[in-house]
Amino acid sequence: MVAVHQEISAAVDQIDPLAEYEHFIEAYRSAETPEASVEFDASLLDETDNLPANEILWNTLTADSLQAMLSSATDELSLTQQNLRTKEALAEDLDAKIQTSQQSAERKSDCVLLLSQKLSLLELHHAVQSLHGSEARLSSQKNLLDAKIAAAASPPPPTSSPRPAL
Q1: 140 vs 147: CA distance, rounded Å
Q2: Could you report the per-residue pLDDT of 32-69, keeping only the tens digit for each?
Q3: What is the pTM of this model?
Q4: Residue 145 near residue 70, CB atoms below 8 Å
Q5: How many other C-beta atoms are found inside a 10 Å radius of the C-beta of residue 15?
Q6: What does the alpha-carbon distance between residue 76 and residue 80 come to, in Å, rounded to a whole number?
Q7: Domains, the chain, ordered by start
Q8: Alpha-carbon distance 47 to 61, whole Å?
Q9: Labelling 113: which of 27, 86, 91, 107 has CA 20 to 30 A away?
């Protein structure tokens, strides 16, 4: 048994990784990729030099982007309001069902069902509260986007430049 271990140890010591894989590495080496060169276009900053803080530069790209955000916020608000109405109706129905079940609960299984319905009602109330928060957030976003688009769409105030002499 010791002789087998000594043979294995000797065989492992004879392995030279560089010599074993030298041909493989040369044959399958991938070509070096040149490093990408990127330059910043400083002319992009020229348009924003006199831009006040928290303001955006209005151009076609900004208008399209804001319009897409407004459309998305409007759609999401509509879906949230629809979901809110559905959840509120479900909560009202379940509450009425619980009220009638409380009066007729006689067996233990009825009490378990009643507790399950109360838990479902609590979960619905939680979902309704969450939807109210989402509705307020989306409504606020929509109003802000509406105001930004309206402000950008209005013509800029006339500049007071001296009139050329005739």
Answers
A1: 11
A2: 888 888 787 766 666 556 666 666 666 677 778 888 88
A3: 0.52
A4: yes
A5: 8
A6: 6
A7: 61-151 (1.10.287.160)
A8: 14
A9: 86
Amino acid making up residue 142: K
Question: What single string gives the DSSP state of each residue in 79-97?
Answer: HHHHHHHHHHHHHHHHHHH
Query: How many other CB atoms are there within 10 angstroms of residue 49's CB atom?
Result: 6
Q: How many CA atoms lie within 13 A of 34 on its CB side?
A: 3
Extract the tokens encoding 95. Answer: 């509450």
Dihedral sign for Cα atoms in the order 133, 120, 91, 80: positive
Reading the block at residue 30, the tokens are: 């991938």
Instruction: With H, G, I as helix, E, B as strand and everything else as coil, classify residue 93.
Output: helix
For residues 50 and 157, give the distance between their C-alpha atoms in angstroms, rounded to a whole number: 17
Who's near 117: CB < 8 A, 6+ residues apart?
94, 97, 98, 101
